[in-house]
Amino acid sequence: MPTYQITIRNTKITNKIRLEKGMTVEVISLEDPVSNGGGKLVHEAFMRKYGIDSKAAGALTPGGYDMTKLK
Question: Which DSSP symbol is given to 63?
Fold first, then answer.
């Protein structure tokens, strides 16, 4: 299965949640993990790794992240 790396582009503070430029999570998914399923896999990955609610922080908005297919 393909592995995707999602990286925050710029430091952002929204709803008292701080996202730092360079925060990265990896997700295994058959399809684009951000648009597929409302970004649930990516949201869960940020919760596991950083304890951050990426949806409340608006991390998955277009232009807010870089996505790279690793494998």
Answer: T
Token pair of 46, please? 């940020």
- Tell me 1's DSSP state: -
For the chain, give the number of residues: 71
State how far the Cα of 45 lies from the Cα of 52, in Å rounded to an integer. Answer: 9
Task: Look up the pTM and report it.
Answer: 0.85
Interior angle at CA 20, CA 15 and CA 25, nearest 5: 100
Classify residue 34 as exposed, middle or buried by CB count within 10 Å of its CB (0-12, 13-18, 19+): buried
User: What does the pLDDT look like over 50-61, one tens digit per residue?
Assistant: 998 888 887 787
How confident is the model over 2-16, as pLDDT tens digits? 999 999 999 888 888
